[in-house]
Amino acid sequence: MAGNLGCVVVSVDGNEGSMDALRWALDNDLEVPAFTAAIEAHQKRITDAILNHALQICAEKKANVKTQVVIGDPKEKICEVIENVHADLLVMGSRAFGPIKRYFPHCNFSISHCC
Prior knowledge:
The chain is mainly α. It is built from four helices and no strands. The chain starts with 15 loop residues before the first helix and ends in a 12-residue tail after the last helix.
């Protein structure tokens, strides 16, 4: 497939659907070393920025925390971490779903259901 393609564009915006599209592209012989390295570097910058922001908030509250970066399906990895550290509580924010999701609050579910 890649033999006929001179340039491949994969649009990613951070949501899992766009990351699935990226995985599909890479799994279907579209992997180019420079492309892969650029994506990995970008993901590292995003991860570092998120962790630095979270650590800044913790420092402001003088909280003693440990960080861990895990890669994979979020619900699976969160559940694995919960089990590994024997957590008593999981606190998560929620994404803004808009008026339709707010109108049907009974459709919400907690990540703790997967554990």
